[in-house]
Amino acid sequence: MTDNSKDPIDLKAINDGDKSPSKDKAESASAAVDPLNLVDEHEEEVKVDGKTERHKGIYLLPNLFTSAALFSGFYAIVSSMNGRFEAAAIAIFVSMVLDGLDGRVARMTNTQSKFGAEYDSLADMVSFGVAPALVMFSWALSDLGKLGWAMSFIYVACAALRLARFNTQIDTADKNFFTGLASPAAAAVVAGVVWVCFEWGYVASDLPTWLAVFAGLITAAMGILMVSNVPYHSFKGFDLKGRVPFVMIIAVILSFGVVMLDPARILLIGFFAYALSGPVMSVFSRFKG
Description:
10 helices, globular
């Protein structure tokens, strides 16, 4: 005789069995996402006394300087598209000043963060990679055809490679030296050439072919120097918080006065000399050794 009776069904056990770990994670993740919250809160892992902690939010002050530097780079691009090359070149120099301030402000106020470092790198790519290349292309290189945009692209690609290499070597590199020309200095040379030539009366419509080729070679050369292994002094060891002799503040004031006599030419000469200092010192040290 067959027993047709069945054991009672444990509904609670069945319901509990349906809840696999992956399902629990999915439910918790869906519960954490608010469809009405269009911008999620930024969380970042930091090391505090050897322990990993998660902090929400970002530091406002250094990222304000980074945002201002990014705006200046974008303004340079828009100005060059409208034929305002002097304003475009000046905007790149303003972006340099702001870019130098954001890192120092973050270190002085102890507000460094991974978010700030990544944001600063992306802003540098726009302000010192894309903006100088497009300003130079709009001013001189567009008439050279494929050669012109090739030289501009060499600069942009080298700027991206230089920033990527810098980010991967930031923990092991010597703080007192850069490997390759820093992207702000390269951008200063490119913008300085545009600024000086524009003040001399060389506008895009009346630009001689030889000057356009020379400007393109300068642009490509700055790109190659950025990805080279030539060491450049970083000046990061200069202590802004320490005491200095009184004559130092006099020297700073005099330097500002000299620059104001002819900003375009003096800034170009200064940064071009810095760009040449790396290869010259490398050759000198090799012959000396």
